[in-house]
Design brief:
Blueprint lengths: L17 E5 L10 H15 L3 E7 L9 E2 L2 E6 L8 H14 L5 E5 L7 H6 L4 E4 L12 H17 L2 E4 L2 H11 L4 E2 L13 H6 L7 E4 L8 H11 L5 E4 L6 H5 L8 E5 L3 H9 L3 E4 L8 H8 L4 E4 L2 H7 L3 E4 L4 H13 L1 H18 L2 H18 L3
Parallel strand pairs: 1-2, 1-5, 2-4, 5-6, 6-7, 7-8, 9-10, 9-12, 10-11, 12-13, 13-14
Antiparallel strand pairs: 3-4
Helix pairs in contact: 1-14, 7-12, 10-13
Length: 383
């Protein structure tokens, strides 16, 4: 018997649907794309009438925090190593969730497919968000890539539904695994910033700096962005916003004290919104993945965006960006010089980016798609 009528609005039914979000580091967001998704999506699902729980890792969550923006937090430990951080925490989270009687679960990261049978034992239907082709990330060695290759195959067999965040990734899973997925991107419409202290602290002027946002990992090309800036000498600073655990040696290879390049670390909340909304241009250099939150957020703020030319990135930015090849830093250097000296071009790209973000990447639209997905999962039951 199904647990709930899939057409029933949770706010009007006799019970609120109970949803678990599993597999990320938790909220408040302090890491990457999955955490941004949970930070923005979970409170909106609460507003839609769901009872939402996010499973969080103890070393990412402020001590004693058990609720955030109306969302319940379950904080569990893990082993803080490159290869065990995610699987150990997801294992514990699924064991906890299986006993908690949720109506549905959304699990992120294809590598977590291994743990979905635990939820099935608890009769909890689960959708797995597989993101992009994680096994192509340079940080994984042969073993890690093998795990992700097997996880992609397993995901198509144990998940009740698959979620992809770009049409390119949806088509890839369909072609490679003959498996349909629900394509739901990220939203772009963040709140406007309320202050300017982050810019003041860094000594930045609005509209007079270039911004890069990503984890400092090889496939995100931070080293090539810095190399391009050194060639371009555009006359405005470059803010390299981000960091990465377990990547100290890689980061030491390109980071050094030099004039014009700022490394403030990872910044979230209003400080992040200040930097995103007031830059001259945003540089997006990722090689791997589907829809990247930082790119759609930059577009949502009406940024001029300089984008590494991949099918996934072009799907997001369309004709609202200037494109470069991250493997050839000189191509990015030329664009940095161009936007620093052509305000008319920058204004035109800003308008195009904002319009495209409004049309395609609304958190209201994203959350509505997730509402329908969760209701369909809950109506299917588990087991």
């Amino acid at each position: 018997m199904s647990r709930v009528d899939a057409t029933m609005d949770p706010r009007q039914g006799s019970k609120r649907l109970r949803l678990a979000l599993i597999g990320g580091r938790g909220i408040p967001a302090c890491y990457g794309g999955y955490e941004t998704l949970m930070e923005e999506l979970a409170p909106r699902l609460v507003q839609h009438g769901f009872d939402v729980t996010v499973y969080c890792r103890s070393h990412y969550t402020p001590r004693g925090l058990r609720e955030h923006r109306g969302v319940r937090l379950v904080v569990l430990p893990t082993l803080r190593t490159k290869h065990l951080d995610t699987p150990v925490h997801t294992l514990l989270a699924c064991l906890h969730a299986a006993r908690a009687g949720y109506d549905a679960a959304i699990v992120v990261n294809a590598a977590n497919a291994l743990f979905l049978p635990i939820l099935r034992v608890g009769r909890i239907p689960a959708a797995l968000h597989v993101d992009g082709m994680e096994r192509h990330r340079a940080k994984w060695g042969r073993f890690g890539r093998s795990v992700y290759r097997a996880s992609e195959w397993l995901a198509c067999r144990v998940a009740d539904r698959l979620i992809t965040d770009a049409e390119v990734i949806r088509e890839l899973y369909l072609a490679r695994h003959r498996t349909e997925s629900v394509m739901i991107p990220y939203g772009s419409d963040l709140e406007p910033p309320t202050g300017s202290e982050t810019l003041d602290h860094l000594g930045l002027e609005p509209g007079r700096y270039l911004l890069y946002v990503s984890r400092f990992e090889p496939e995100n090309n931070p080293h090539r962005v810095v190399e391009a800036y050194r060639v371009a000498t555009p006359g405005v600073p470059l803010v390299m916003l981000g960091d990465a655990p377990y990547a100290d040696e890689f980061i030491r290879g390109f980071r050094r004290e030099e004039e014009g390049v700022f490394y403030p670390g990872a910044i979230y909340g209003d400080g992040y919104r200040q930097l995103q909304s007031r830059s001259l241009a945003y540089v997006h250099a990722t090689d791997v993945g589907g829809t990247h939150p930082a790119l759609v957020e930059a577009m949502g703020y009406g940024n001029c965006v300089l984008v590494h030319d991949t099918p996934e990135n072009r799907e997001v930015a369309g004709d609202a960006a200037l494109y470069f090849d991250a493997r050839e830093p000189a191509s990015l250097a030329a664009l940095m010089q161009r936007v620093a000296t052509d305000p008319g071009l920058v204004a035109d790209l800003r308008a195009k980016a904002a319009a495209r973000a409004r049309e395609r990447y609304s958190w209201d639209r994203v959350s509505a798609d997730y509402v329908e997905l969760v209701k369909a999962l809950a109506s299917s039951g588990g087991g």
